[in-house]
Amino acid sequence: MKVTMRHSCRSMLALSFLAGCWLTLGSDLPARADAAEPSETSTLDACQRYATLHYQQISPKRSIQLLEEGVNEDKYEDKVGSQLVSTVLSGQGIWQDKAGGPSDVRFVCLLENSTKPVFVAVVEDKRRDPVAVCWDGFEPSEWGKMTQCLQDSLKREEAALADLLEKATQQAGQSLDKISAKRTLQESNAQWRKYRDIECDRRQAFVAGRNHPDIGELTCQIHKTAERISDLKFDD
After folding, report:
1. Is the model's pTM score more than 0.85?
2. The pLDDT value given to residue 38
3. Which domains does the chain carry?
4. Backbone angles phi, psi at 8, to 5 degrees
């Protein structure tokens, strides 16, 4: 049993290493055989089921969707440790976090055969644009739902910003010049909010008279708030 467990651990480490190389090097990593056109989705469907079950077990609040568009299927036909890997499937996906929203990811799925995945790895690229998420679910006859989706997204962005400002305030309290650090942070955020609202009002004025102008204003507010979040994270 000890030998079996040791071999199993070595195989898992080898699989993890191969997946990591594929995610890092992508198409620059030579395959063992000619690449196959992803004309069928059986391997992707198998990897989706495997990834869903895997991440439900280790992170129940998160889910993964593997996207068919742009998927690459490469023949490998070799052993990794003691595990046979016949196919390497790689591509893009969407990582859904109930607390933090969706993110764009890259994935690699190693398969023993077309229906038997043995390992999956995911690397987060970036947080998905909340506005794009709303447009993904848009139906032409449901502008009200679109507005609600954007309003909800703005609330989440502002809540995330509030959390970062609280952390920044705590950091300011550790500065050698606490009073100045807190004062400049408050002034900076007040000026930023004023700028955001005026800039979005300006954009709104340029589309006055068009259908659903609130969509543009909400979009502007979401993007400007996301930019502010990035600025504060950079300062962290």
Report:
1. no
2. 39
3. 2-128 (no CATH), 131-235 (1.20.1270.180)
4. -65, -45
Average of per-residue pLDDT values in the chain: 79
Q: CB neighbours of 219 closer than 8 A, spacing ≥ 6? A: 131, 150
Positions of the chain with pLDDT under 70: 1-40, 98-101, 126, 208-210, 234-236
**Distance between CA atoms of 81 and 62, rounded to whole angstroms?**
30
